[in-house]
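As a representative case, we now present a protein record of this kind.
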Amino acid sequence: MTNPTTPWSPHEIVLTAEHDHPEPYTGVEVWATFTHDSGRVLRRPAFWDGGATWRVRFASPGLTGRWTWESAASVDDAGLAGVTGSLAVDGEGEGVFGRHGFWRMSQEGRHLVHADGTPAFLVADTAWALPWRATPEQAETYAADRAAKGFNAVLLMSVQPDSGARGPADRTADEGFAVAFEDLPDLTLRRLRPEYFAELDVLAATLVRHGIVPVWQPVFQGFGWKGLRTAGAEVPPEDYARYCRYLLARYGAAPAVWLVGADRFGDEPQVAAGGAEVQAWDDLAQPTGIHYAPFGSNRAHQDADWLDFQWCQTGHLGDHVPERVADMARNLPAKAVANGEPSYEGTRVEGFAGGWWQGHEAWSNFCAGATMGVVYGAGSLWQWQLRPDEAGQSPYFSAPGAGWREALDFEGSRYPGVLARVLHGLPFTGAVPDWTRTGNPRNVVVPGVFFLSYVAGGGNLRIVFPADVPRPYRVVDPRTGEVLERGELSEDGTVRGPGGAPRVVVFCDDFSGSAIA
């Protein structure tokens, strides 16, 4: 038996092939079946890691005790198939994911929860190009900044997706990028470079160590790094599905979200192939979904078993369009929704979609139905522009005078994380939009349990129909999370407040253990 590990912590098993295989990535499938003393069975795919090496990464889903395992393979090789072992799991994992488990969907399907049922709320950034442009030192700077501001997820293009992009295979050089598949320019995904993913392991571990969950997008379908014919909608679906399985094998024993479609219509054959592959192999049931282009219908595969969430995109014109979120929230069967890509701060013009614009966007989307979470983006950061004057970058998406490092400090990045801070410890799972209890249109409610109103312009809030609204309330500054007032709802149903400044009013019978107690 190996040394003990803790629940929800990755444990790695190394398998060594006894025979050479001419096509180890495309021609060999390897997996392991894990059986707990309780009878719980989990299956984990293995991934090829160069030469004769395959690895299996496993995390015990909250169970302590003994697991036994046995490997299997699609080829007759004793080094890969029929290998057995056991591991002991004891103690408690570290951090919020170690204590409460990875994310999954709530029973009604609209919210994130941890595996033990603890409510969760996604606050994501869009550092799309980090996997193939950032260095480990830069990733450390990035993750520390975002964690301090309340971010807990980041959208990532796992590979540079533009088949037409040219540049040195050097993540530190102008127009350079690390290469994951040698044949991606040919619109296939068969010549994988394990050394790329060894570097990505370091970056991903840095994010997770700071509590930032990677949202893994396999190969972008829409406008990629520079919009130079993205491969994600053109590679063979079987190549795309195989790569989804590889990502799941390599990164699925840590917190993850699977974004199998991105920036297009969602009905591309690669999306369904990827979603089905993730569902077939992810026994931990981490969330899987689609992110659309601004002109998408936002409802592809709505009834698919593998689909957990739908993310619209309101584009980069500086408009608040919460009705996109509201439209998705009405789709059935119910899925979690969010605006996966509002306007990027600082794009094209200094101050564009800047400062409190981002805070208002986040709260407006949440109250329109984005109860899975909110997403932020910044120009020059998403493409990991090395310097303000890096050659070859598109002026349309660049922030004037900023590279990735300067863009980290944009004011608007301070505000989305406040939502998670306000919601922490409160029973908001199951909340849906509501405009029937107040004259204010921006509310969410769990009847009799939780009510939240975002009063964008400040001033008084009157509860017109208070029958199932809890009486205790907190008035919060949504820009800082500071509690400005504590009270009980008066007989006339009015919470009085100053005009001109945004306010959030939260009603709940029990604030103990919350961030706004």
